[in-house]
Amino acid sequence: MIIAAAAAPPPPVIPNYGGPPGGKHGCIAQNGTFCWEWVQGHWGDILQPRLLEHLEMTVIAVAIGFAIAFTAALLAQRKRWFETPFGGFSAFLYTIPSLALFQLLVPFTGLTMLTIEIGLVGYTLLILFRNILEGLRGVPADVLEAARGMGLTRRQVLFRVELPLAFPAISAGIRIAVVTTISLATVAAYITPLGLGQPIFNGLQTDFTTEFVATGALAVALAIGADGLLVVAQRALTPWVRARRTT
């Protein structure tokens, strides 16, 4: 009686993905300076999500910083003694190196986005506080006297006279704060892997040039684009400034 040998199981099927786009001699495999194929392939899973995170961190930090600085500037305008302590405190925060400030916050707030936001807000205070206060103090005294003579209340004088005339100085402070926050938010990825700083650090650690070059260029483009939009908004909201320059 002949017993047939059991058939051997087929070997596992290993899918052939073909390696990185462009093959083993392509830009990615050769670690070129800038590989457009990598940008296209990782826009949806790396670049776009990190860009949105970076934008979110910037907007939150500048918005909170502006609210604090605006309130402090109004108080300092009416109570001059308040300018020195708040200005000194905001200047002290601004002089602390960013990595050191984030590290000091970690024991209290952990490796979280809250740590990043506290640090970023702290760096906006000095810029926004000085510009808002100088803008409010730059309103001519005779204009304020005329507004009060017309029977306007203090709130009406603030919103109808002082803020419109101080807006160029305030918007200049916002522009500086936004660009500064965008740059500092990349450093914050050293604490928590959020924003455009995460792929920049990852590219530096893995020595993959395209990742940190593409992400760095994206951060620069974000700063330039944000500044350009703020300039357009400033010109649209202050038509009297353009009219005064043309006369």
Ordered list of secondary-structure elements with their pairings:
Layout: H1 36-78, H2 83-95, H3 98-109, H4 113-137, H5 141-149, H6 154-187, H7 197-206, H8 209-237, H9 239-246
Helix pairs in contact: 1-4, 1-6, 1-8, 2-4, 3-4, 4-6, 5-6, 6-8, 7-8
Distance between the termini: 114 Å
Strand content: under 5%
Mean of pLDDT: 84
Q: Can you tell me the overall shape?
A: elongated
Number of alpha- plus pi-helical segments: 9
H/E series? HHHHHHHHH
Largest sheet: none
Query: How much helix, percentage-wise, in residues?
Result: over 70%
- Taking Cα atoms only, what radius of gyration do you get, to the nearest Å? 27 Å
Structural class: mainly alpha
Which regions are unreliable across 5 or more consecutive residues at pLDDT < 50? 13-18
Number of DSSP strands?
A: 0
What does this structure look like?
The protein is an all-alpha fold and 247 residues long. It has helices at residues 36-78, 83-95, 98-109, 113-137, 141-149, 154-187, 197-206, 209-237, 239-246.
